[in-house]
Amino acid sequence: MPELPKKKVGVIACSGEEIPEGTITRLAVRQVLEALRPQQTVTICLPLFLAGGEGERAFARFHPTIAVDGCEKRCAARGTEMYSGKPAVSIVVSDRMPTDSSDLGNARRLSEAGMQVVNNLADQIARQVDELLELEWDGRSGRPFESAKPQEESKPAQATCSCAAGIPVETLQVAGKEVTLIALPVIFTQFRGAGKLPCNSTKAELIEALRIYNPIPHEDEAAYAEAIIQKYAAFCGGGN
Amino acid sequence: MKENVLVVPCSGIGKSLGSVAREGAYVVTEDLCPEKTKLLPLALIVLGEDETRAELSSAKAITIDGCVRACAAKVVEGAGGTVARALQVLEVCRRYPDLKPSGISELDENGHQLAHALAKEVKELVDNMRGEVTHA
Q1: Which candidate from A26, A45, A107 shows the least CB-CB separation from B10?
Q2: Crossing angle of helices B109-129/B16-26, nearest 10°?
Q3: Which residues does chain B have within 8 Å of residue A8's beta carbon, measured at their own beta carbons?
Q4: How many CA atoms lie within 13 A of B118 on its CB side?
Q5: Which residues pair with A11 in a beta bridge?
Q6: Do A22 and B46 touch (CB under 8 A)?
Q7: Chain A within 8 Å of B71 (Cβ-Cβ)?
Q8: For the residues A114-119, what does the mean pLDDT come to?
Q9: Which of B11, B40, B52 is the best mutation test for A, with the most CBs of A within 10 A?
Q10: Which one of B22, B26, B71 has the shortest CB-CB distance to A48?
Q11: At what angle are helices A200-211 and A221-238 packed, to 10 degrees?
Q12: Which residues of A touch B72 (CB under 8 A)?
């Protein structure tokens, strides 16, 4: 399997600047990224789906995503679905709040009650991360149990932002249609590095590797294979 | 009656400069000129609903971006808004080289000072746009 950016859970906050619940989403997501699940999570600024490129828009197709919204408008969930992919989980702060909204402080400065909601929400997001990654968590050590799915990285824990580090994608023509394939550049680099020539057996292997990250309709498989092998031949010949 | 100026900070959640943009927008719209400005959340513009588009088309906007991706400026323009000035926090940073902000959830003192410096620049722009030039 290609060494893509490690599959993590994407957590997207609405960050709504107008209401305290928006600030709560922002702070809770930061808490998950920085303290609770730094190795397992990554974020992206919601507007980057519009302002960024295909790499950013591939975010929710590559990472299972949790959208965290402050209000019922659900900007994060709807925006993510419109421009990237359907979130695996959608959480709305105002749906689950035991506290009256007026007790939360304001968008700029949360009250103690507001900060308590931040902590509870962060815990809830972290549990959802574990469920999505099927992680079992050891509460005493604050780490996944040894038997859990490996998500380890050798780098020290740090919150990760996908800004300017989008998922590698490439667009090509398949049967007259433009399709964007996640991971194609990385897979090409790895195949060429392994000395694989652009021949029929490589064509089948390429399709299998791409299928891990992209839906390839059965009826279009031959057209995909042809377009991909031609692209790979050009890639190998071009010395990229 | 003069129209309010919309202030649209980026939603930057991965870097300190995004937090400076957000805090600077609060300082302008809540402290320095609340009667002349209105904060418009970027997430709402991303959704592109009619109500938000109408608000965008009714007034000029100052966008404040924390990084060169310029999400706020691009999204406002894409939604049909008029960007009177697209500010980059990085530009303000260059004018105040001693203020190196850190922290995202909680900005440090440098971050707050930079946000105030940014807010003062936005206030001047707002006054200029409304024909109320206050500086000599």
Answers
A1: A45
A2: 50
A3: none
A4: 36
A5: A43, A66
A6: no
A7: yes
A8: 95
A9: B11
A10: B71
A11: 110
A12: 47
Q: Does A41 touch chain B (CB under 8 A)?
A: no
Q: Which amino acid is at A230?
A: Q
Of residues A27, A43, A47, nearest to B46 (C-beta): A47
How do residues A178-234 score in pLDDT, each as one tens digit? 888 878 888 888 888 889 999 988 998 898 888 877 778 888 889 999 999 999 999
Chain B: residue nearest A164 by CA?
Answer: B69
Integer Cα distance of A32 and A145 in angstroms:
19
Q: Which two tokens stand for residue B75?
A: 């999204």
- Is A45 part of the contact surface with chain B (CB cutoff 8 Å)? yes
CA distance, residue B136 to nearest chain A CA (Å): 32
Q: What is the DSSP letter of A161?
A: B
- Give the angle subtended at the CA of A12 by the CAs of A9 and A16, to the nearest 5°: 165
- pLDDT for A176 equals 85
Q: How many CB atoms lie within 10 A of CB A235?
A: 18
Is the minimum CB–CB distance between B10 and chain A shorter than 8 Å?
A: yes
The token duo for A198 is 């652009």
| Sign of the dihedral through C-alpha A236, A224, A60, B22 | positive
Q: What are phi and psi of B37, to 5 degrees?
A: -130, 160
Q: Which amino acid is at A180?
A: T
H runs (alpha helix) in A109-220? 112-133, 184-193, 200-211
Gap from B121 CA to chain A (nearest CA, Å): 20
| Contact between A45 and B9 using a beta-carbon 8 Å cutoff | no
Q: How far apart are CA B123 and CA B136, in angstroms?
A: 15
A135-184 pLDDT, tens per residue? 665 555 555 554 444 444 444 344 555 554 556 778 888 888 888 887 88
Question: Is the separation of the CB atoms in A213 and A235 below 8 Å?
Answer: no
- What's the ipTM? 0.92
Three-class HEC string of A65-121? EEEEECCCCCHHHHHHHHHCCCCCEEEEHHHCCCCCHHHCECCCCECHHHHHHHHHH
The residue in chain A having the minimum alpha-carbon distance to the alpha carbon of residue B79 is A50
Q: Angle at Cα A163 formed by Cα A159 and Cα A168, nearest 5°?
A: 110
